[in-house]
Amino acid sequence: MNGTKKSEIVKKSRDYLKNILLILFVAVFIAANISFTALPAFASTTEDTSSEDATQDSTTDENTDNSTEGAETDETAELQFDSIANAALLMEASTGEILYEKASNEALHPASITKVMTLLLTFEALERGDISLDDEVYISKDAWLVEGSEMFLLVDTKVPLELIITGISVVSANDGCIAVAEHISGSQDAFVQLMNKRAQELGLSNTQFQNPHGLSAEGHYMSARDIAVLARHLIEHYPEILEIESLTEFTYNDILQYNRNPLLGVYPGADGLKTGWHEKAGFCLVGTAKRNDMRLISVVLKTKNKEERLDASRELLDYGYQNFEIKEVISEGESLGDTDVKNGKELSVPIKADNSITLIIQKDKIKDIQTQLVLDEEILLAPIEKDSKVGKLDIELDGEVLASTEVSTAQEVEKAGFFELLWRGITSFFKSLFNVSKGE
After folding, report:
1. What domains, with CATH codes, occur in the chain?
2. Which whole-number Å values give the CA distances from 131 to 110, 116, 199, 240, 245, in the listed order?
3. Tens of pLDDT along 333-383?
4. Is residue 60 within 8 Å of 267, Cβ to Cβ?
5. Rounded to whole angstroms, how far apart are CA atoms 247 and 15?
6. Could you tell me which residue, 176 or 33, shows the higher pLDDT?
7. Is 112 a catalytic residue?
8. Are 101 and 73 contacting, i.e. CB atoms less than 8 angstroms apart?
9. 35, 83, 104, 112: which is the annotated catalytic residue?
10. Is 313 labeled as catalytic in the residue annotation?
């Protein structure tokens, strides 16, 4: 009897142990599977980091796309105002974005604005070491005889190159342009070939030069757009030119002359760049000013007189500073939140912007700017290295993408071990059972 009871107890113990092992096996199996699928939600695939209070304008602002080329841009810009110049363009210098244009691709006589290219080639030759500011430049008979504005160079003399550059910049010296052209290339013709070659390299599609100074010549022309592009290139690569261009007076051979740029001392922040006039060209000016960390370049061509040239230039610059603002929307390395990680020691990883984004925005549109984070994968799989590219950040306005930058991980995430994944799965499993028991 005692043996029978003992036998039954042993059998029941074995059955009980089998049931416990079976339950544990099932639990481990379920937990192992859940560990690879169940993850808490820390971030979504796309993210809008703009202010919740910002509202999207339901109508499309006709002036949103200020960089569109051609008649469409002219047409929308004219809704703001119509420049009194025959051709005009306003550009923000750091981005090259066009804020206003009128007949900007029309080939017109640029007059002495031509000298911007002459100065660019001179500074490039200096940078290459082909010439030096201390060079004594020989003054030929051709340079001495040239008509128009001059610094009164004397034939068969030698003048320091630095002094001639100042004369070209401040008093628009035609004689200085010929002297520099001959000094760099040996002849005016060779220098003009270099001018046209450089124009092609810079993408100036409506530009052709016949001389280095801009006196009237058949087949000598530039467009307002080309002038702005050229001026921006000169300022961007050789900003020291503005120190010279902003000088208000120049004396050579005891002859005092004043800078012909009407913006200097009149328009706040103005420090360049080049005037022009002859009968066919009318009164022209490529001006530039810097205010509130924003540099603008204005071009007006074929105005009627000096007063209209100044008024047209001031109008363009005023339009830019009154209506637009330069704004850094995203900084390089700026945190963009976290995104989920699968099988990692950490359940999420912070991501950052790889580049800064600076935009020229209409002031009344700044509040409508939105950011949209677009990741390549919904969930990242560990291990993850630091600086891994994981998607992009779009900057949008009125449903249009204005700019983008790649985004990457801000730190590495190691892969979790087996037991950590197992424990995480078991925890998630029992949490889900608990939630179900609560009726959730």
Report:
1. 46-61+331-418 (2.60.410.10), 71-324 (3.40.710.10)
2. 27, 18, 21, 17, 21
3. 999 999 988 887 778 889 999 999 999 999 999 899 999 999 998 888 889
4. no
5. 103
6. 176
7. yes
8. yes
9. 112
10. no
